[in-house]
């Protein structure tokens, strides 16, 4: 791409992957121009973190998610007006970042601006996919080089760290062809700490994405089987939760069980990453798995606590769902080697968070017995009116629950909700026709997997909509207590 034609924030375009979501009806020229205006303004005025604890600026996520759901320009502007109040102002870094000093300032948020400029220059010279490959998935970006401190850069660990925010941010850039977001996301990764390095060891970069030829081996186990084995592993046991610091729990799990988690994941990761169909199947496994991790404990834990309790919409598990939406876009632009690295490492991070939230039971049968396959979600309109094929008083007067679910999400103050419901709606469209009892699920080791069908996603979305639709929600909206009462 020539410097003349290069734009940081062009019109959003369709994802490079056929299994990524399409934008919903409602897109207008005015809405698209507003998204571009907001992204440019945010890029020029705000830092990646909105406080000194490293909490992330989500402006880009919010406006792109609601734009893709069909929001008009006024809603996009309102979302930005709401979100920008808490942002920190951008500031110039103490110095420039070059190839020579790239490793010397990793983890220092004061160099965010300099890393953004570095990555913009790199993307102008090559393209976003090549820069992503070189600076996240190469050996040099992880263990084949060092900075002045003597530390390896470990960029893949940074990419998947901080609750996978970098993966999400870059995911939007890749999905919508926004080079500016890819540059911002890579800069975020560079200034992140590296808490995730324990499950992205040097040996990961030596693995061949194509299994060696030889004797015929059995197929790698399904992600459900790996999840079941982790659940049943009595050596992985969370006895206490460090008070008010969820990241400490995550770090504790990494320090104590990284090797065990990797052992489980490496069995799953024994697949040919040059086989596009097989890679898509692995992505599908991870998407189902992460929705289970979010939805099932949230429902069953609330029932244990009493009927007056609403769904436990866990803040941390929710990020596993929203990040999984971007696996197809990432996979579409990466080499087989990088695809393999991403899928294996992402699954390891997902399992680590599952353990760090208390490793709750997954009561599949109860979830499907007790939640609604066709939930009645309050809509803003009074149904289809008199000219209708529907009988008066019919429970199907609101014939598609997704309309009300997505309408609520578009206007909600919390940006995570529109991201989550967009993800679940897409999975419902992609996987909604699946019937229960199919062999690929039923023959896994996960108890109750034979009951899973394509209604999982609307059940999860409706429970979330009910919880976050309450008028008396405390600040923060989401639950952060975890599931430690059920810990194994």
Automatic annotation (TrEMBL):
Record key words, sorted: Oxidoreductase
InterPro entries to which the protein is assigned, alphabetical: Questin_oxidase-like
Disordered: region residues: 1-26
GO molecular function, one term: oxidoreductase activity
Organism: Moniliophthora roreri (Frosty pod rot fungus)
Listed Pfam families: Questin_oxidase (PF14027)
Protein name: Oxidoreductase AflY
